[in-house]
Amino acid sequence: MSFRATVLTLYPEMFPGHLGLSLAGRAMEAGTWALEAVQIRDFAADRHRTVDDTPAGGGAGMVMRADILARAIDHASPEGDPRPRILMSPRGKPLTQERVRELAAGPGAVILCGRFEGVDQRVIDARALEEVSIGDFILSGGEPAALVLLDAVVRLLPGVMGNEVSGDEESFENGLLEHPHYTRPQEFEGRAIPEVLTSGNHAKIAAWRREQAERLTRARRPDLLGAKD
């Protein structure tokens, strides 16, 4: 069974976006995965297709309505659908490579893209939405975040990456940032490729790469080293 993603959005024209190109696009054409973008406004009840209202208790902005979102979710993910329901949200649990691998090993995902000030909490609770964040910053909506999540997942699906082992040493896979990379020319603006990489000694190369990965992680993401302990 192929990986099947359904995205609930006010802007379905944003999909598949870059996911229709390169490796992800070829995998979609091959049937490795499928993507459906569902217009949330189709589930509104009024002629203006309104999906939001003023926040209870006052305040700025608008909030996406629970009843309309529930209808959209129930349409996309009826009872018995095994796919997790995800809400892209800046207050969600940070997306990790571990979670990406879990999703890639599953049947797909139903992804809700929030807009405005947020989503009525009642639909989050009633439909058991998993809130996921791609970083400590605010976007104009959940669509770019959904594209990022799907990009991370699709590249791990069987047969998508040209070299299946190429992901094993990437950043976060072993609790470390990835080591530096070099290629030809041998010298660039007075900077040479480190000698160890051209020595042919695979044990020394592996040790050097591990040392560099630890050094970079210690300098840029010491929190990852703490997570390993």
From TrEMBL:
Binding site for S-adenosyl-L-methionine: 114, 134-139
tRNA methyltransferase TRMD/TRM10-type domain: residues covered: 4-225
MF GO annotations: tRNA (guanine(37)-N1)-methyltransferase activity
Location of the protein in the cell: Cytoplasm
Gene Ontology CC terms, in alphabetical order: cytosol
One GO term (biological process): tRNA N1-guanine methylation
EC code(s) of this entry: 2.1.1.228
Reactions that this protein is recorded to catalyse: guanosine(37) in tRNA + S-adenosyl-L-methionine = N(1)-methylguanosine(37) in tRNA + S-adenosyl-L-homocysteine + H(+)
Enzyme category, top tier: transferase
Source superkingdom: Bacteria
Protein family per UniProt: Belongs to the RNA methyltransferase TrmD family.
Role of this protein: Specifically methylates guanosine-37 in various tRNAs.
Protein name: tRNA (guanine-N(1)-)-methyltransferase
Organism of derivation: Mesorhizobium alhagi CCNWXJ12-2
Gene symbol of the encoding locus: trmD
